[in-house]
Specification:
Layout (H helix, E strand, L loop, with lengths): L7 H9 L1 H20 L3 H20 L9 H24 L3 H18 L7 H31 L1
Helix pairs in contact: 1-2, 1-3, 2-3, 3-4, 4-5, 4-6, 5-6
Amino acid sequence: MNVQRLCPVYRKWLQLNPSSAREHRLAMQAQTQKAHQQGELDYARELGYQTFEAAKAILNALQPTSLQKVSVVQEDVLAFSTMGMYLSSLLAEEHRKQESHAILQECQQQLIAILPLHATNPSVCRLITAIQHTLEQTYVPQISRQLISAALH
């Protein structure tokens, strides 16, 4: 998934203004869900990709770490992960299994990459580890089912 759906200037703005960017991310999440509920699957998928990229940009934004910011970091981790899982499910509904798996893998890789940055915050580390476990449980069974199915046929 190397296609970038966000304008580079907008992506940079998201990283430089994480507080305002979080509000944008919430609005984008709501738009994605609304489009999906209204049956506009192509639009929901495109918004989902954009929201996922926005959540990733916010997650990767350099921000001061402190105990007061732990809940904000946890919110960012959850927003990125849940958006990835939601986008993956949208793609799976449309029988785009490779794209769906790619999103889950990207989530896992991103969480692995940021884990050392939060080594001094055990609650953030526990959250990341729990999400990684959930992603593994979601991703591995799907691959196992495909391998078993391929072996049987």
